[in-house]
Amino acid sequence: MHSKQDKKPSIIWFQGLTCNGNTHSFLNLENLEKLLDKFELLSHPTLPSTQDFKTITDCTLICDIFIFEGTYDPLMKRNNVLVSNIIEHYSKYAKYIIAAGSCASFGGIFRSSAPQRNSGILFVEQEKSGPLLSYERKVINISGCPLHPQWLSYTLNMIEKGNNIEIDSLHRPIELYSNLAHHGCTKNEYFEWKVDTENFGEKEGCLFYKQGCRAPMTHASCNKILWNEVSSKTRVGTPCFGCTEPNFPRSNLFSTKTNMSIPEDVPLGVPKRNYLTITGIAKTFHIKRLEGKLIDYKTTD
Amino acid sequence: MARMTKEERKTTIISAALQLFSERGFYITTIPDIAKKVGMSVGNFYNYFNSKDILAKELIIYISEYLGRNIRVINEKESSTEEKIYEIVSMYFNMADEEPEMIEYFLRVYLSNREIFGDGCEGMLCVSPFVTEMMMFFNDGVECGKLHNQDFFSAFGLFMGYLGGMVFLFGEKILPEPLEWYKESISQNIYNALKTR
User: Fold this and answer.
1) How far apart are CA A145 and CA A277, in angstroms?
2) What are the φ and ψ backbone dihedral angles of B160, each rounded to 5 degrees?
C-alpha cells in the first residue's frame, strides 16, 4: 500500500552554467518548508535532499519535475558526465521541465560569453531552437535574473494540485507574466506626468526617461507580487532591467537609450508617434506636488 | 449654390483671421474686422468662436496640424534622411510662398505675443502635432544612423530656427532671391550640421 508520502511528486534541481542566483532566491521563499513538504526533493544544490550528486549524474533514477538552473553549455560536464546527457535523461522521463531563471529560459548572461554555443534549454533568446525542443510541451520557463521565489512556488503548487498552467509564446506562465513590471509601480504618477528623477534610490520621480527603466516593456509581476513580500526594484528607485525578457542582458542598464532625447523604446504596444504626443503635452504641465519630496507633502497641495 | 457647412464656415473665418492678424497685427485687428471680411454679422461670429483669444489659439492649432500632416507624409516616405530634409524645407518654403499668412501668423503673432497663448496653449499644447512629427523625423534619422544623436531641442532649434529666420527675411523683403532659390543650399547646410560625425 502506498502512503501519501510516496505519492509526492519528485524534484531534481540541476545546475548548468550558473551563478546560483536562482537557488539563493528560492531560499527566500516565505513558506519554503511548507512548499517542500508537498514534494520529494531528490536533489538540490543547497537544500537537504534524498540523493547524492553522483547518483544524479549517473542517471540511474527519474523524477516528476526536472528543474534546470543556468545556461545550457553543450560542452559542460558535471562529475565528468556531459550535462547534455544528463538533461536528456531526466527530461525524457519528467512530466514537467522547469527552466529556473533567465539563463535556463533564454540563455541570459552566460550566453553572452559564448553566444555561438550557449543557450537556454528550449529557447535561444526568443527563438525556440534549444536542446529540449523535442520535449517542448513539458517546458515551463520561469525567467528572471534571478527568478522570483513566489513565481516558482506558484508553478510547483499548480503542478502538485494537478492544475493546468497556461503559458505564453515564450513558455512563461500567463498568470505570472501577463502583467508588465510597470503595473503596480509606486512611481506611476510620475510616469503619467513625465516627471523624471535625476538620482537613484529615491521614492520620487520616474526612472524611465534617463535611468534605463524597462518596466513598461517587460513582462513580469514584480510590482504585483512583491520581492520578499515588501518591495521591488522600481519602488526603491532602481530601474527595472527587463530581466525576464529574452533580450536580457542588455548593455548600459542604468541609462535610457535615446535618439535625440526621444526614448528608443516606448511602452509596449504604444506607437511612438502617439507616445510622443502624449508625453509632450504631459510635460507642459508642472505639477508642483510631484516636484517635491513626498515627505514634505501638504494636504493643501 | 449649396450652403456652407459649419466646419467650412469655420475654415473661412480661420483663413480671414490669419490674413488680418498677420497683416495688421493681433491687437489692432478686431472681431468686427474679421466678421466683415467673411461677410457675417458680429453676433454670428460668436457662434463659431467665443473670443479673439480662443480664435488665436485655434489658429495656431490649425497651423500646427497643417504642418504636422505635411511632415508626416514626408516622414512616412521611403526616402533618405537627406531627401526628407529637402522635402521639409521645400514644404515650409512653399507654404511661406503660397500661404504666407500661416507662417507670418506663427512668427509674428504666436512667437511675439506669448501672453495670449499662456492659458491653455502653453508648452506643447497647441503645437504638439507639428513638434511630434519633427521628433519622429529626428528619431528616424538617428535610428537609421544618418543623424548625430544629440539633444532634441538643439537639433530642432537649428532646423526650424534656420527656416523661420529665412522666412522672416523673405517677409521683410531682405532676401535678394526668391525662397525657392535657397532650398538646395539650406537643406544641405541643415544636413551637414545634423549628420553623423
Assistant:
1) 34
2) -75, -30
B67's CB contacts (< 8 A; 6+ apart) are B92, B95, B129, B130, B133
Res A286: pLDDT: 86
Q: For residue A150, is pLDDT > 80?
A: yes
Give residue B152's domain range.
51-194
Between vectors from CA B152 to CA B147 and to CA B158, what angle results, nearest 5°?
Answer: 75
Answer whether A262 sits within 8 Å of B135, measured CB to CB: yes
Span A174-186, mean pLDDT? Answer: 97
Contact with chain B for residue A74, Cβ under 8 A:
no
The residue of chain B with its CA nearest to that of A284 is B123
Asked if the Cβ–Cβ distance from B129 to A264 is below 8 Å, we say no
Report the pLDDT value the prediction gives residue B113, as an integer from 0 to 100. 81
A-B interface: how many C-beta pairs under 8 angstroms? 54
Question: Whole-model pTM?
Answer: 0.88
Chain A touched by B181 (CB under 8 Å): no
- Does A259 contact B151 at a Cβ distance shorter than 8 Å? no
| A204 Cβ neighbours under 8 A, 6+ residues apart | A187, A190, A195, A197, A290, A292, A293, A294
Specify the number of domains making up chain B: 1
Instruction: Tell which of A257, A258, A261, A270 to mutate to test the B interface (max B CBs under 10 Å).
Output: A261
Domain A4-177 matching CATH 3.30.1490.110: the answer reads no
Contact B123 A260 (CB under 8 A): no
Region of residue B94 (phi > 0: left; psi between -120 and 50: alpha; otherwise: beta): alpha
Q: Residues B131-188: pLDDT tens digits? A: 999 999 999 999 999 999 999 999 999 999 999 999 999 988 999 999 999 999 999 9
Q: Domain for residue B44, yes or no?
A: no
Whether residue B128 lies within 8 A of chain A, CB to CB, comes out as yes
ipTM over 0.90: no
Chain A nearest CA to B106, separation (Å): 19
Chain A hits for B150, CB-CB cut-off 8 Å, are 260
User: What average pLDDT does range B82-86 have in this prediction?
Assistant: 98
CATH architecture entry for A179-290: Irregular (4.10)
The residues in B 96-125 lying below 8 A from A, measured between CB atoms, are 122-125
Spans of all domains in chain A = 4-177, 179-290
What is the structure's pLDDT at B1? Answer: 53
The total of other beta-carbon atoms located within 10 Å of residue A260's CB is 24
Whole-number Å distance between alpha carbons of B187 and B84 = 9
Instruction: For residue B152, give the CATH number of its domain.
Output: 1.10.357.10
Q: What is the pLDDT of residue A265?
A: 96
